[in-house]
Amino acid sequence: MENVPASWIKVGTITDNEFSFNQVNIDYEKAVEAYTHGLDFLYPVFQEGEAKFKAILDTDEEVIGYRGPDVDEVRVMIPFFPGTNCEIDTKRAFEKAGAKVNVHGIRNLTPHDLTESIDAFCTLLDASHILALPGGFSAGDEPDGSAKFIVNVLRNDKVKKSVEGLLKRDGLIIGICNGFQALIKTGLIPYGEYRELDATDATLAHNAIHRHISAIVTTRITSNKSPWLTSVRPGTCVQVPLSHGEGRLSVGEAQFDEWARNGQIAFQYADPAGNATIDPRYNLNGSDYAIEGLVSPDGRILGKMGHTERVQDNLYKNIPGMKDLPIFQNGVDYFRKTRRNQ
Question: How far apart are CA 151 and CA 149, in angstroms?
Answer without folding.
Answer: 5
